[in-house]
Design goal:
The chain has about 160 residues and is mainly alpha-helical. Helices cover about 70% and strands about 0% of the residues. The longest helix has 20 residues.
Length: about 160
């Protein structure tokens, strides 16, 4: 739990946009992982198995809710260990990034969420998405290109 809780939480927050929902889904992920630990059986990496559960929990959340993501709630996603000025900057950066991610094609958004927020390797991301590593690299490259266009201001591009 200590090793993966932050990654699962960030992944959930990037997907659902609500601190309360992200916390709830993180708890559900670990509970489902604990209940299904016998199903892991040591095949593959534990982190990939755990994020497979997280991914399904996020999908189930949207199937049940069928609602839009309130990105304004991302302001409450501060890291308790940061300094106040760092927290404000991080909140703004995270909010802009999360808003931009939601405008990406679904595969690109998922790849970037798993790679950046969940901090999974390309291999683990590919496994979870059912794609080759080359396909994931291409999705990431295109996602980063799209995000740069959406997040970086025209003044900083020059």
């Amino acid at each position: 739990y200590q090793r993966h809780a932050t990654g699962v939480y960030r992944y959930m927050l990037a997907h659902v946009g609500s601190v309360a929902d992200a916390q709830d889904l993180t708890a559900q992920t670990f509970l489902a992982g604990l209940e299904g630990i016998a199903g892991f059986a040591g095949r593959g990496k534990f982190v990939a198995w755990l994020f497979g559960i997280a991914r399904r929990k996020a999908i189930d959340h949207f199937r049940a809710a069928r609602r839009t993501i309130p990105l304004n709630e991302l302001e409450d996603a501060a890291d308790p260990d940061g300094q106040p000025d760092e927290l404000t900057e991080a909140r703004l950066d995270f909010a802009a990034l999360a808003a931009a991610i939601h405008t990406l094609a679904p595969d690109r958004a998922e790849a970037i969420s798993l790679r950046i927020f969940a901090e999974l390797s390309i291999s683990d991301t590919a496994h979870l998405m059912g794609k080759s590593e080359a396909a994931v690299r291409m999705l990431l490259s295109r996602a980063v290109h799209d995000l740069r266009r959406r997040v970086v201001s025209p003044e900083t591009r020059a």
